[in-house]
Amino acid sequence: MILLVLLGINLIASIALAFVGDRKYAPELNIFGSAATFAASIRLALKVYNHGPMLAANGFFFVDAFNVYLAVLTAFVSMTTAIFSRKYMRHERSHGKVGHKGMRFYHAMFQLFIFAMLLALLTNNIGVLWISMELATLSTVLLVSLYRTPSAVEAAWKYFILCGVGIAQALFGTVLLYFASEKIFGEGSRGLLWTNLSAVADKLEPTVLSLAFIFFIVGYGTKVGLVPLHNWLPDAHSEGPTPISAVLSGLLLNVALYALVRCKVLVDGATHSHKAGYIMMIFGLLSILVASFSLLRQKDIKRMFAYSSIEHMGIATFAFGLGGPVATFGGLLHMLVHSLTKSSIFFTVGHASQMHSTQEMSSIGGLIKGNPSVGWGFMLGVTAIAGLPPFGVFTSEFLILTAAIKDAPMFMPFFLLGLVIAFAALFRKVLPMVFGKPPSIQKPIKAAHLPVFIHMSLILVLGLYLPTFLSQWFHAAVVLLVR
Amino acid sequence: MINEAYPVFMESLQVIMVLVAAPLLVGWIRMLKCWSQGRTSAGIFQPFRDLSKLFIKETVLAENVSWIFTATPYIVFGATVLAGAIIPILSVDLPLSATADIIALVAIFAIARFFMALAATDIGTAFGGMGASREMMVSSLAEPAVLMSVFTVSLVSSSTSLSHMAHTLTSSPIVLRPSLAFAFLAFVLIAIAETGRIPVDNPSTHLELTMIHEAMILEYSGRHLALIEWSNMMKLFLFASLGIASFFPWGIAGADNIKMLPMALLALALKLALAGIFVVVIETVLAKMRVFRVPEFLGFAFLLATLGMLSHFILE
Amino acid sequence: MNASFAAQINSILAAFILLTAFGLLVQRRVFGLLHIFAWQGLLLSISTAIVGYSAGLHHLYISAVLTLSLKVIVLPWILYVLIHRLKIHKEVEDMVNIPTTMLIGIALVIFSYHLTAPIRELSTLVTRSTLAVALATVMLGLLMMITRKKAVTQIIGFLAMENGLFFAATSATYGMPLVIEMGVALDILIAAFIFGIFFFQIRTTFDTLDLKAMEKLKEEE
After folding, report:
1. Residue C177: which of A127, A134, A297 has the nearest Cβ?
2. What does the pLDDT look like over C152-190, one tens digit per residue?
3. Strand boundaries in A113-261, DSSP class E
4. Which residues of A touch C142 (CB under 8 A)?
């Protein structure tokens, strides 16, 4: 019941917002919808926390420790993004970058996108997981091209085509998975339910599952933005409206990684080997290295943080590939803190580029003088994402690093090298923007401070102390993922 | 007695039939074409009259010709008759068939073509050289395709001997095979190109921009021209019967069975008549394509042949 | 119609689906592509119906009808209308290197055959051998999207890839559960509307549907 409410709110909000259009109260309605979703997700989380994993609607939905925290995270970040987008989009609207049709579309699609992600997280059916991943892509494609500039249209087209191609491979993987499970469960949807599959994972045909995993990692890996399948990501994340960049980087990548990890569990069970893990480690490491070197060469501020997202997704993929309780724990925590940090950075970046009417980093400067809260928020966000203590990213990266030293010492130097380069690149680019004298083009704006503040304090808390309920959750998820 | 003589009898019967029936087939096609275009036809025997007229006429040779030019008509004619003796047209039991398989057959056609091109350049006129180069372009693309196409049939019957291939197909139950369907389509396209019909070449035009085969034989006259024309008719006939033998051999006479002969003759006549109708329909519907489109046409044929071979492995 | 005869017809249809995939790869005219795409859908639909008949699975009939209406009627119609509205029906693509593309295509078919060999061993279905063709169709659609530089052709490549996936589901497992197939069809339909909007967006921003104009977003050197 609570599941239907949770999913229903977004869907209803989406339809309602499509009718409300560009009226004055549309952003507030958007916030209200997301807040209600967040409340429902908390309710769901409490239920799972008290009663353990649950199946609902004839096994169609499955909620366990792994996906419930991601669902809460998704609902939460979507709520803060909605708060941020109220002021941000008003600014864009008043500067003529979006028309009233665009605003209607933006709000409706935002809610639909959240719905698709929640459905992907909560469903138990591997096929529905695929469908909702595709739906999440489709609902954001036209948001990326919202500004109708040549580069925005190009980015959206790239996003549409590359993700469409990628995710088609994942469907082939799903077909193969169904092929293997059909031998055990026979015809029908039962053979696609993740709970059923994981119960009999060791009876599934290993050769078929290995083949399926190749297609899964190419398919969902494209959506995670793993190198060398990442080409669409910097474009799509930099050319769309900033709230969309925030949810794409903060949430959609997580959901795609979630899908990949769910599939990996099944493959590991079937093959009794660590093959899938090694593949993920290599993809992850490659993403970390390529992304961190690319960070050095960026001129566009949002593009740079898009590459940073690739790097962090690489870290999480590497962690899940490493397996082991510590690394998996670190991976789960990393997904959480990266999502919070990256969306907060995008909030401040959005305001910074509005202040200077450009995304070129060379034209941005003196943020702390110009608007202290944006400047400091940005500075703290970058400090956190670079992995400095006392923020949460440090904790998760530290956990993954210790696990890597123990389990995969030969990969460790590359991992560390990537982190160091990313650190150096970020600070080299960011410091001139934050400190110094504001350039003449800088204009004051109305910034949304609340979301940044909430996110930063959460990350700080997570860095200093992990609440018991969260660590218990993560432990339960680790038990689920590590056999 | 009859058992020993039977293969030899069959062989001679077939060679005579190739010599006689080839002009008949061409006459049939021309007749159909006349009808389809609303003209009065000259009758099915007109090619014989043409040939005998050419044989009577004086042979004119250019001053600078070498022996290649005079020898080529005989070589081409000989090679074509030899090819006619190898293909199992009437019966699968031919003594010469055992000596040469499908690869040799393709090579025999290649020899004829090679001398044809040599003779065309030998005379030193512009048209001869142009025709020779175009012919070589077409054949260099068509030959791998024709091999690929018949190899698919060989794979199905696991033999490259034409007799054996025909025998396997007739004696096994009828199965729908995508490989054979593709190989056949490819074969039809190549046969059109090899025998110089529309849309690749037009046998009844002497337009310098488009002609391929006619450009090569422009300098021939009298007896030589008659031999070359006759070989060309035989080539058309042979390609039609090669297609029939490889893809639709049903009705062909088996080994040691003279009683099947009338049946085989009748079936062959029927199939060739249908092939003639098919050729006329193609030539009426399609226009001749530009010469530089021909590689694409043949590339498509090659693709079809390859797909045929692949689907033999994948789907059967 | 007994099982082995149905299997024979099915493999003939599979072979022709492969042929249409190659046809899409080498066809230069927009309308030609559209026709081949519609034919591919039709073959797919017939093949699904035959598999449904021979295996006695009635949900495959629904899939067949779904394919027929979506891939043979609705999508080609949408594309047809779009092509007319955008006035690009006479466009011919000139940059395709056909022989090389075909050779790569053939190599991809062999690769798919190799890749699906273990599954062929494991499967007991009569349609198991067509899985290689299905994967090859997916790969060829991918190849088409790589080699073509026009928005409409890329979309047709994308849809052809989707056809291959559908065919894979039919040949490996007698079709995915109906819920999934409906969902996938819905996604494709939404995608169709999105690319329709896209064509106009690209056209108004770039004055052409040639994707060569869209090469601005690259890493700065």
Report:
1. A127
2. 888 999 999 999 999 998 888 888 888 888 888 889 899
3. none
4. 165
Each residue's pLDDT tens digit, A63-93: 988 889 899 999 999 999 999 999 999 888 8
Greatest Cα-to-Cα distance within chain C, rounded to the nearest angstrom: 64
- Do B176 and B270 form a contact (C-beta atoms < 8 A)? no
Given its phi and psi angles, is residue B250 left (phi above 0), alpha (psi -120 to 50 degrees) or beta? beta
CA distance A382 to A299: 16
- CA–CA distance, B247 with B241 (Å, rounded to integer): 10
Q: Does A160 sit within 8 Å of C195, measured CB to CB?
A: yes
What's the token pair of residue A389?
């203590």
pTM for the whole structure: 0.88
Chains C and A, touching by 3 or more CB pairs within 8 angstroms: yes
User: What angle in degrees, to the nearest 10, is found between the helix axes of C130-147 and B294-315?
Assistant: 150
Q: Please, which residues have CB within 8 angstroms of residue A69's CB and are 6 or more apart in sequence?
A: A45, A332, A336, A470, A473, A474, A477
What is residue C150's three-state secondary structure?
strand
Q: Is the peptide bond before B262 cis (omega within 30 degrees of 0)?
A: no
The answer to whether C44 and C138 are in contact (CB under 8 A) is: no
For residue C166, how far is the Cα from the chain centroid?
9
Phi, psi of A216 (to 5 degrees): -65, -45
Task: Identify the three-state secondary structure at position A86.
Answer: helix
Query: Token pair for residue B275?
Result: 């092939």
Q: Counting one residue from B and one from C, how many pairs have CB atoms under 8 Å apart?
A: 60
From chain C, pick out residues whose CB is under 8 angstroms from the CB of A150: 205-206, 214, 216
Chain-chain contact of C173 with A175 (C-beta, under 8 angstroms): yes
Q: Cα dihedral angle (A197, A199, A202, A203), rounded to 10 degrees?
A: -70
- What does the domain layout of chain C look like in residue ranges? 3-212
Cα distances from A25 to residues A35, A147, B218, in angstroms, run 15, 22, 87
**pLDDT single digits (tens) A207-261:** 889 999 999 999 999 999 998 898 899 999 988 899 999 999 999 999 999 999 9
Residue B289 DSSP one-character state = P
User: Which residue's entry shows tokens 């699609």?
Assistant: A109
Of A419-423, B245-249, B270-274, the least confident: B245-249
Helix (H) or strand (E) holding A55: strand A54-56
The conformation of residue C213, written as its DSSP 8-state character, comes to G
SS3 of B1, please? Answer: coil
Those residues whose C-beta lies under 8 Å from the C-beta of residue C37, and which sit 6 or more positions away, are C20, C24, C71, C75, C76, C79, C156, C159, C160
Distance, C-alpha B130 to centroid of its chain? 23
Q: What residue in C sits closest to A171 (Cα-Cα)?
A: C165
User: Can the peptide bond before residue A228 be classed as cis, meaning omega within 30 degrees of 0?
Assistant: yes
Q: A387 near A394, Cβ under 8 Å?
A: yes
**Alpha-carbon gap, residue A388 to A293, rounded angstroms:** 19
CB contacts of C115 in chain A (<8 Å) are 211
Q: Which of A135, A179, A205 sits opposite C187 (nearest CB)?
A: A135
Contacts of A191 in chain C (CB under 8 A): 177
Chains in contact with chain B (at least 3 beta-carbon pairs closer than 8 A): C
What is the spatial distance between Cα C127 and Cα C171, in angstroms, rounded to a whole number? 5
Q: Which residue has the tokens 């249908």?
A: B274
Return the CA Rg of chain C: 18
For helices A275-296 and A412-434, angle between their N-to-C axes, nearest 10 degrees: 30
Burial readout A307-331 (b: 16 or more C-beta within 10 A, e: otherwise): bbbbbbbbbbbbbbbbbbebbbbbb
> What ipTM describes this predicted complex?
0.92
Q: Is residue B193 a contact partner of residue B301, using CB atoms and an 8 Å limit?
A: yes
Q: For residue A63, what is the enclosing H or E element?
A: strand A61-63
CA atoms within 13 A on the CB side of A276: 30
Torsion of CA B249, B253, B255, B257, to 10 degrees: 160
Copy the structure tokens of residue C44: 């797919």
